Task: inverse folding
């Protein structure tokens, strides 16, 4: 972690980071965009997970129902990660020490890895997936909810 | 200034004082407010996208509404309760906050948009329920809903940055 310190200090000292750090308007706008991205992810995960769980529109094929929600999850992820990195840049030095932030990143990594390794295939309706569709839906929902909760804890308890 | 007097009175109520002074109460309310938002807006967007003819095009519009909206209403209820409690704690400051006013105006317009959809547009739903691409008044309602909720979210975050940190 200590090897990261000089890099993080450079990030904090950059013009972009100091501009964001000094502007309430930029922080608010980025935070709004970050939350829009999260809303896209949660909405997409809810629709596809509820379908995988057999709760939402079980008479309709999984792949057809989740084609747009899979795209929404990836788009929401891109939006949230980009805005999140910009929001973090003025206080990049917290990365090695803030346990709530580290927990959030750990959960996010787990959710992203699970999505691309297992969840996406199940949501495409591929046969012979590693886990049952129901378990995949439940795990996906639990992982992304925990990311959102850790995000709330990070902004509130920091 | 009836509204301002009401806001000052709200802030002084025991609930208002508790929201301002209890760290865990305030944090818990904000967390549930944000989670309620991702649930409600996250789900409502899928009905809006169906109205726009973008997703679930083979499922009748009325079916998507029936299956999606109960989840969204659950989110709305938790968002409304926690939002009202948070407002009680900061009512007088919120009253003059421009972002709070934008948020309330967008919420009101989202309500009017839903009302117009249900009372006017939805009347002829039998004619377009199964169409992959519903007629323009329905598509407009979907688009308006997405835009207005995005404004509510953006303005809401601006409120968080300009209201509580005083």
Result:
């Amino acid at each position: 972690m200590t090897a990261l310190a000089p890099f993080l200090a450079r990030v904090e000292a950059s013009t972009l980071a100091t501009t964001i750090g000094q502007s309430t308007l930029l922080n608010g706008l980025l935070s709004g965009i970050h939350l829009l991205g999260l809303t896209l992810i949660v909405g997409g995960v809810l629709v596809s997970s509820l379908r995988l769980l057999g709760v939402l529109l079980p008479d309709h094929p999984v792949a057809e129902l989740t084609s747009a929600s899979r795209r929404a999850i990836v788009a929401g992820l891109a939006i949230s990660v980009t805005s999140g990195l910009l929001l973090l840049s003025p206080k990049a030095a917290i990365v090695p020490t803030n346990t709530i932030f580290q927990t959030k990143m750990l959960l996010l990594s787990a959710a992203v890895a699970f999505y691309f390794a297992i969840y996406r295939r199940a949501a495409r309706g591929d046969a012979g997936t590693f886990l049952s569709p129901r378990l995949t839906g439940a795990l996906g929902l639990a992982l992304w909810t925990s990311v959102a909760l850790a995000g709330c804890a990070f902004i509130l308890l920091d | 200034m009836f509204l301002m007097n009401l806001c000052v009175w709200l802030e002084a109520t025991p609930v208002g004082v508790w929201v301002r002074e209890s760290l865990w109460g305030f944090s818990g309310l904000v967390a549930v407010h944000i989670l309620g938002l991702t649930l409600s807006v996250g789900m409502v967007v899928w009905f809006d996208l169906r109205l726009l003819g973008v997703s679930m095009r083979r499922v009748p519009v009325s079916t998507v509404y029936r299956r999606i909206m109960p989840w969204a209403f659950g989110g709305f209820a938790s968002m409304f309760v926690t939002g009202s409690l948070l407002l009680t704690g900061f009512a007088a400051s919120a009253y003059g906050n421009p972002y709070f006013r934008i948020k309330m105006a967008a919420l009101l317009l989202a309500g009017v948009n839903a009302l117009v959809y249900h009372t006017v547009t939805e009347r002829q739903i039998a004619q377009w329920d199964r169409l992959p691409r519903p007629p323009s008044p329905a598509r407009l309602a979907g688009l308006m809903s997405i835009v207005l909720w995005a404004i509510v979210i953006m303005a809401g975050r601006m409120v968080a940055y300009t209201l509580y940190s005083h």
Observations:
- The mean pLDDT of chain B is 94.
